[in-house]
Amino acid sequence: MRDILRRVNRRTFLNTLLVGAATPILAFPQAKPLNLKITGLKTFVVNAGTLNWVFCKVYTNAGLIGLGEGSVTSKEATVVQAIMEHERYLLGKDPTDIELLWQGMFRNPRWRGGPILNSAISAIEIALWDILGQALGVPVYKLLGGAARTRIRMYLDVGSTPEEFLHAKELGYTAAKMTPLSPVNNVVQPSSMVRAAVRKVEAVRKAVGDDFDIAVDAHGRCTTTMAIDFCTRVEEFGLLWVEEPTQLEDLGELALLREKTKTHLATGERSFTKFGFADFCSRHLVDYIQPDVCHAGGILELKKIGVLAETYRIDMAPHNPQSYVSTMASLHVDATTSSSSIQESTLSKSEWIQELFEGGGPDIRAGYAELPARPGLGVTLNEKVAAAHPYKPAARGEYRLPDGSITDQ
Question: What is the pTM of this model?
Answer without folding.
Answer: 0.92
